[in-house]
Amino acid sequence: MFPAGPPSHSLLRLPLLQLLLLVVQAVGRGLGRASPAGGPLEDVVIERYHIPRACPREVQMGDFVRYHYNGTFEDGKKFDSSYDRNTLVAIVVGVGRLITGMDRGLMGMCVNERRRLIVPPHLGYGSIGLAGLIPPDATLYFDVVLLDVWNKEDTVQVSTLLRPPHCPRMVQDGDFVRYHYNGTLLDGTSFDTSYSKGGTYDTYVGSGWLIKGMDQGLLGMCPGERRKIIIPPFLAYGEKGYGDKIPGSAVLIFNVHVIDFHNPADVVEIRTLSRPSETCNETTKLGDFVRYHYNCSLLDGTQLFTSHDYGAPQEATLGANKVIEGLDTGLQGMCVGERRQLIVPPHLAHGESGARGVPGSAVLLFEVELVSREDGLPTGYLFVWHKDPPANLFEDMDLNKDGEVPPEEFSTFIKAQVSEGKGRLMPGQDPEKTIGDMFQNQDRNQDGKITVDELKLKSDEDEERVHEEL
Ligand SMILES: *[C@@H]1O[C@H](CO)[C@@H](O)[C@H](O)[C@H]1NC(C)=O
Ligand SMILES: *[C@@H]1O[C@H](CO)[C@@H](O)[C@H](O)[C@H]1NC(C)=O
Ligand SMILES: *[C@@H]1O[C@H](CO)[C@@H](O)[C@H](O)[C@H]1NC(C)=O
Ligand SMILES: *[C@@H]1O[C@H](CO)[C@@H](O)[C@H](O)[C@H]1NC(C)=O
Ligand SMILES: [Ca+2]
Ligand SMILES: [Ca+2]
């Protein structure tokens, strides 16, 4: 994707430097070496007046460097400066592209180091000089600060800063990762950070959404892991750089903190923490009405919700679309008293956009404990008979035989059916309310009593339900 060799356009941007190079080559091959100008110095004098405390790497022959410099004569008069052009030098060092004095003077330099170089004429522009700029036999004084160094043989360098003791899985190609990062150049200049955006950076790994170096550097990370990833420019933004923050041919350092990741193919991960073996003869299934306690957090441990805040267990009918899909699945096959850990990927939770208190694309970690289980009712039903309803339903309901059924008679009748095990009410709601709702349904003209016709009418209408609902 990016050419690994030294970029030629950076030379075009520096007409003076280009001139210097051409002349240097002439001097180096012919005049300069053959007849040294005879200055007092044999070699470059290097004064390392600022050496940074940390120096993970020193400039070697063939490295690509970026640096700023000032050039002055012995009398202090400035003849050149990268600052004046507002462009630093980006070039391969030690291969004759610079004057020999500079090629030698940069060797062994650290990023952020500052050096003063004294370059004798025979390692500079010799006895000819450079028309209009450098007089013959000039000794040159350079002040240099190194900002960047890399080599086209470089690979992505990864160092783990913190690895959580528990690593359930590692990032693979195709995973969707949520992470925080701080991005700096080698000299420490910050160019970007996820923290300024109010959320994690979320992306697929290994699908070309990221610069190549990042696609590589994130592989194998655990949830919660912190890494430093150093990326050479040919695996980052190349010769062009990016925006006004990332210069061309810059090495990038990313400090990365992975919050969570998942794969679009993930299912709910279920781990049983404890299970009461003796009483576990019945497990939850689709359609069951369950009550459960839960704690919900992000993978990094951030607590989101807990049923303990509400003082009562959460209630749900499994498969009724009342809870996230991951819970509908994760709560099946449980027995009362069982505790589970569920890891729910976002496509089975709150998706890419998240929900109140839940970041988009977040993986959720649940701890659930099943409190109770009962058979549920089909959707829309308030009551079902376990067998056929009584043949003389209205007569049975009309307890005082006056031809009408007020709420009191209705309620007494239904409660009797339930307690005799002949039918059951919708779970999860106050029975009084359910019975009230049933009465309302049956009392077609809303006069506060059910007549035999009203009961028939309702039954005829709901032919399908006649055997199950009143
Ligand atoms: C070069 O000159 C500028 C302006 O005088 C100064 O700020 C800078 O520190 C000097 N030295 C280097 C290495 O750039
Ligand atoms: C980024 O920098 C901030 C401020 O220094 C720090 O709190 C945070 O932990 C850093 N994040 C990473 C991923 O290194
Ligand atoms: C399960 O066990 C309980 C109590 O031991 C019992 O009441 C119930 O009928 C059993 N259920 C099944 C399906 O065996
Ligand atoms: C949730 O957290 C509370 C308080 O830390 C704890 O008592 C409870 O056992 C946890 N698990 C469940 C399933 O509620
Ligand atoms: Ca009556
Ligand atoms: Ca009526």
UniProtKB/TrEMBL annotation:
<dbReference type="Pfam" id="PF13202">
    <property type="entry name" value="EF-hand_5"/>
</dbReference>
<feature type="signal peptide">
    <location>
        <begin position="1"/>
        <end position="26"/>
    </location>
</feature>
<keyword id="KW-0732">Signal</keyword>
<keyword id="KW-0106">Calcium</keyword>
<keyword id="KW-0325">Glycoprotein</keyword>
<keyword id="KW-0677">Repeat</keyword>
<dbReference type="InterPro" id="IPR002048">
    <property type="entry name" value="EF_hand_dom"/>
</dbReference>
<feature type="domain" description="PPIase FKBP-type">
    <location>
        <begin position="62"/>
        <end position="150"/>
    </location>
</feature>
<feature type="domain" description="PPIase FKBP-type">
    <location>
        <begin position="287"/>
        <end position="374"/>
    </location>
</feature>
<dbReference type="InterPro" id="IPR018247">
    <property type="entry name" value="EF_Hand_1_Ca_BS"/>
</dbReference>
<keyword id="KW-0479">Metal-binding</keyword>
<dbReference type="GO" id="GO:0005509">
    <property type="term" value="F:calcium ion binding"/>
</dbReference>
<dbReference type="InterPro" id="IPR001179">
    <property type="entry name" value="PPIase_FKBP_dom"/>
</dbReference>
<keyword id="KW-0697">Rotamase</keyword>
<dbReference type="GO" id="GO:0003755">
    <property type="term" value="F:peptidyl-prolyl cis-trans isomerase activity"/>
</dbReference>
<feature type="region of interest" description="Disordered">
    <location>
        <begin position="421"/>
        <end position="470"/>
    </location>
</feature>
<dbReference type="GO" id="GO:0005783">
    <property type="term" value="C:endoplasmic reticulum"/>
</dbReference>
<feature type="domain" description="PPIase FKBP-type">
    <location>
        <begin position="174"/>
        <end position="262"/>
    </location>
</feature>
<protein>
    <recommendedName>
        <fullName>peptidylprolyl isomerase</fullName>
        <ecNumber>5.2.1.8</ecNumber>
    </recommendedName>
</protein>
<dbReference type="InterPro" id="IPR046357">
    <property type="entry name" value="PPIase_dom_sf"/>
</dbReference>
<feature type="domain" description="EF-hand">
    <location>
        <begin position="385"/>
        <end position="420"/>
    </location>
</feature>
<dbReference type="InterPro" id="IPR011992">
    <property type="entry name" value="EF-hand-dom_pair"/>
</dbReference>
<keyword id="KW-0413">Isomerase</keyword>
<dbReference type="Pfam" id="PF00254">
    <property type="entry name" value="FKBP_C"/>
</dbReference>
<feature type="compositionally biased region" description="Basic and acidic residues">
    <location>
        <begin position="444"/>
        <end position="470"/>
    </location>
</feature>
<comment type="function">
    <text>PPIases accelerate the folding of proteins during protein synthesis.</text>
</comment>
<keyword id="KW-0256">Endoplasmic reticulum</keyword>
<dbReference type="InterPro" id="IPR051989">
    <property type="entry name" value="FKBP-like_isomerase"/>
</dbReference>
<feature type="domain" description="EF-hand">
    <location>
        <begin position="430"/>
        <end position="465"/>
    </location>
</feature>
